[in-house]
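Q: I have 172 residues here and want to know how they pack in 3D. Can you give me a structure?
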Amino acid sequence: MKKLLTIGLIGLFASMTPVQAATPLMSSEWGEAACEAWNNNVTLTEELGGETWAENNGGKGYKIMQVYRMDCNEAPTAELQISNQDGKAICTYGGAVKSSDLDAGVDYIMFAKTSNWERMGSGKDGAMKSMTFGRLKFKGPKMEAMSNMGPFGAFLLLTGDVESSTTDCPAN
């Protein structure tokens, strides 16, 4: 009986799938999920589409948004590419950073400490407050960002909506 129980337990444990740890916030895997979440967010797709934001892409057909956690890395770890498609801002790529030649007049690099990304993602700190108090830093067209504060705030909330972990840092 003891032997049968042991064999049964071994079989049970062997059939269990390993628990998947949540992907690190701002990792390439997070970027993939963030791209999908972007496309399911009406504020981002509708309010940033057309000539409002997405069309300002420097002629390359898409805007680039790169992000990172300052206490983990000193360079972007995830990238989103946003295209204007039929008047909507659609994420066409999300993942590892693959663009090295950003146009400061149209593209963005956003970075903050992990704790600040968490505050922004939970809605405790909005876009204006985060930028005013230096909790969110970015490179890119500041006037364009300021004129799109509502949708920009929706992107910050997206960082909390996409399942992730802040325990580990993303790889560069």
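Q: Anything worth noting?
A: The helical segments are 2-15, 28-39, 42-47, 114-122, 127-132, 142-146, 149-161. Strands lie at 63-69, 78-85, 88-95, 108-112, 137-139.
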